[in-house]
Design brief:
By secondary structure, this protein is mainly α. It has one domain. Strands 1-2 form a two-stranded antiparallel ribbon. The two termini are about 20 Å apart.
C-alpha cells in the first residue's frame, strides 16, 4: 500500500514525467540521418567521460526519482505488480476513453505546459501517420504512454516512468545512475546478482522481467490485439540499456534481435515530436475511433 509520501499529487506526477522526458531526450539525442536498421547502439570512439556529462546538470528531482526507482524496483516488487495489475480489475474503458482519463493527470492551471497528455499522444501518432507508416504503428504511437494512468491509481512515480531494466540478474553499469543500485536489496542476493541470475542464456526478452512501469502495463493491455512489431514498441520503448546502450544481448533470442529495428524506428517518434504543432483532439477523434475499432474491442479491462 502506498504511504502518503509515496503517492504523488496529479501535478507532481505530471512534473516528474515532463522532467524525465526532457532528461531522456538529452541523454539519448537523435542520431543525425540515422537508418534504424543500421543503428549501432555503441560508439567505440566515444570517450567514457562523454557518457556521464548529463549527470552534472540533471535536476535534483530527477536524481531523486532514479534513486528511488533503482532502490525499490526489486525482483519481488516487479512480480507482485505484474500479478496485481494483470488482474485487470481497475476500470473498464475504451482506448480513446483511456486517453481522456490520462488527460486528468494535468491540471488546467499547470504553468509549465499548455499541452494535454492526449495531445502528447497525438503528436507521436500523427508524425507516424504523416510519414505513411502502417496503421498498426500509428495506433501503437497513440497508445504507447497510456500505461501512465498508473499514476491515477495512486502508484508512485518511480513505478510508472523511468528507463526500464531487467530485474533478477546483475544491473548493468550502462543503466542511468548505476550507483543507486547499491541500495537495492537484490544486489545482496547472489541468486539475483549474477550475469544470468534467474534466467538462461538466450532465453528471450519475453521471459525476462523488466522494472515495472507504464510500458509493461500498456503492453499487457494490448497483447491480444496488435502485431508483434507494435507490441515490442510498447513494451520496450523505455528499455534504453538494450536498444540504445547495447546491453543484455546475451538474454535476447533471434526474435528480439529482429524486432530491435522496430523499437529504434519508433524511438524517434516517441522522443522527438514534442515540439511539433499541437494536434486538435476534437478534429482527430473520428479518425482514431475508426483506427481503434479496427484492432480493439469497444471496451477493455484495465
Amino acid at each position: 500500500m502506498n504511504t502518503p509520501s509515496d503517492t504523488p499529487s496529479e501535478n507532481a506526477s505530471h512534473d516528474i514525467m515532463e522532467e524525465w522526458d526532457a532528461f531522456v531526450k538529452e541523454r539519448y539525442p537523435q542520431p543525425a540521418d540515422q537508418d534504424p536498421t543500421d543503428f549501432n547502439p555503441t560508439d567505440p570512439d566515444k570517450k567514457e567521460k562523454e557518457f556521464r556529462n548529463y549527470e552534472k546538470t540533471v535536476r535534483p528531482s530527477v536524481r531523486k526519482f532514479y534513486e528511488e526507482n533503482h532502490t525499490k524496483q526489486t525482483y519481488d516488487f516487479v512480480l507482485g505488480k505484474k500479478k496485481e495489475f494483470t488482474a485487470f480489475n481497475r476500470k473498464e474503458m475504451g482506448l480513446w476513453e483511456a486517453a481522456e482519463f490520462l488527460n486528468t493527470l494535468v491540471d488546467d492551471s499547470d504553468p509549465d505546459t499548455n499541452l494535454s497528455q492526449l495531445q502528447h499522444l497525438l503528436q507521436t501518432s500523427e508524425e507516424i501517420r504523416k510519414e505513411g507508416r502502417p496503421r498498426w504503428m500509428i495506433l501503437s504511437g497513440f497508445i504507447h504512454d497510456l500505461g501512465k494512468i498508473l499514476c491515477l491509481y495512486g502508484e508512485p512515480q518511480w513505478a510508472v516512468v523511468g528507463d526500464t531494466f531487467p530485474v533478477g540478474c546483475t544491473f548493468s553499469n550502462k543503466i542511468v545512475f548505476p550507483e543507486f543500485f547499491g541500495k537495492n536489496p537484490d544486489t545482496k542476493n547472489p541468486a539475483l546478482n549474477s550475469r544470468l541470475g534467474v534466467y538462461e542464456e538466450g532465453c528471450g526478452l519475453d521471459k525476462v522481467n523488466l522494472s515495472w512501469g507504464h510500458d509493461e502495463y500498456v503492453y499487457q493491455i494490448a497483447k491480444p490485439y496488435l502485431p508483434t512489431e507494435g507490441l515490442y514498441m510498447l513494451r520496450y520503448h523505455s528499455f534504453y540499456p538494450w536498444h540504445r546502450e547495447g546491453e543484455y544481448d546475451y538474454l535476447c533470442d533471434e526474435t528480439d534481435r529482429k524486432m530491435l529495428k522496430w523499437v529504434l524506428d519508433f524511438n524517434k517518434y516517441d522522443l522527438y515530436t514534442k515540439s511539433h504543432t499541437a494536434p486538435d483532439p476534437v478534429a482527430l477523434k473520428p479518425y482514431y475511433e475508426d483506427l481503434i475499432a479496427e484492432y480493439f474491442p469497444a471496451k477493455l479491462k484495465w
